[in-house]
Write a structure and sequence with these properties.
Layout lengths: L11 E6 L12 H14 L6 E6 L10
Length: 65
């Protein structure tokens, strides 16, 4: 399940160009990756397909049977 403990790592967001695989830096603010994608597409007019990469920490534990 998603880790919601007080010591959980933050959810991180990045954007990746599906044409050249270049990607933004990961950030807790998803708008930074979106801004990177707009700048990247401006510099590379034929690159208009992107992936949003989300790193969501999870916590797992064994339950007694």
């Amino acid at each position: 399940m998603p880790d919601q403990e007080p010591d959980a790592e933050p959810i991180m967001y990045a954007m990746q160009c599906a044409v050249c695989d270049e990607q933004s830096a990961a950030s807790i603010d998803y708008t930074e990756g979106h801004a990177w994608a707009l700048r990247h597409s401006g510099r590379n007019p034929s690159h208009h397909t992107y992936r949003e990469l989300v790193t969501r920490p999870w916590r797992c534990w064994m339950r007694g049977w």
